[in-house]
Amino acid sequence: FYYDLYGPGTRLPLGIGIDYFYIPIIFIKNLKFFYLFSLIFGFYIQINFFKKLFKILNIKYYYILSFFYAFNITFLAYLITGDSIKTFFTLSLWPAIFYYLIKFLSSESHKYFYKFILIFIYTVLNSHPTTIFIFSIFCFLFILLNKKFFFLNKKYFYFGIILFFFLISEEFYRLFYESSKFSESERPLLIDIQPKHFTSGIV
Prior knowledge:
Mean pLDDT: 81
Structural class: mainly alpha
Order of helices and strands: HHHHHHHH
Number of strands: 0
């Protein structure tokens, strides 16, 4: 009932992590190859969607900007100090989320809306709720500032919202159920988190 990578007595699935259809997980028995393949996979997603994103925005030299994104301080800090492939993978998916959001708002096509919803669901299931919260606020502000509300009178939008909550419901129920069983899950706050901390991340 436990996996020896974590230790005896560990209940699985364990917390929040990369679980759902994460391709490099097939190499988990060989950790070096798992980490290497995860980095290659993440960099591929970044470059592929940055190329598409910058083409829409008419920005040249996307490889240089992709390089700065891939080797920013957040990636390096999490990878070096915490081996956090989850954080790296989540931030690697951000260009894809943003790309499909822009394509949906510019084309007003339900096809791009469903692609946006599906990649967002995939990110929710393989990421941390705090990161998703910040991503969600950014998407909301992006739509608000661009004054794009055409989807509010479209049936596919409401179907997509129902689909979103349906597909993430089991994961959030599991996390709530697991955290409610153990008092140890209520960890003391290391810092006093205030709204300004979230807004600074969005900025």
